[in-house]
Amino acid sequence: MVYSESEIIHELEAGNENCLNMLFDNYYRALCVYAFRFVSDGDDVEDIVQEVFVSFWMNKKRTVFSGSLRSYLFGAVAKAASKFASSLDYVITSMPGWKLCPKRQKIYLKL
After folding, report:
1. Cβ neighbours around 36 below 10 Å, total
2. Average pLDDT, stretch 74-81?
3. Cβ atoms 50, 58 nearer than 8 A
4. Distance from C-alpha of 99 to C-alpha of 106, rounded to nearest angstrom
5. 31-to-15, 99, 109 alpha-carbon distances in Å
6. What is the pTM of this model?
């Protein structure tokens, strides 16, 4: 089921735990697809998105939105995925014109 952003925010403000399920139903798949722009392993992508959901829920009372909830979640996934990719020296393939040096080609092909 798809929920409106206002419904989710209302449930979030009320402290309803069902809000997490609503967030998951609405955004999980799209966030995973988006995270694949930064990280090429499906298990890593799922871990990153799940960690964003957990972090969001744990910090829900301190989170202030300056835009939409959707934008916030996509930004959080981009930041988490970029941080993960850089920590493992991944190549971010969504960058136009990216190229690998010969040494990194061997490493990348093993992934």
Report:
1. 16
2. 94
3. no
4. 13
5. 23, 26, 25
6. 0.73
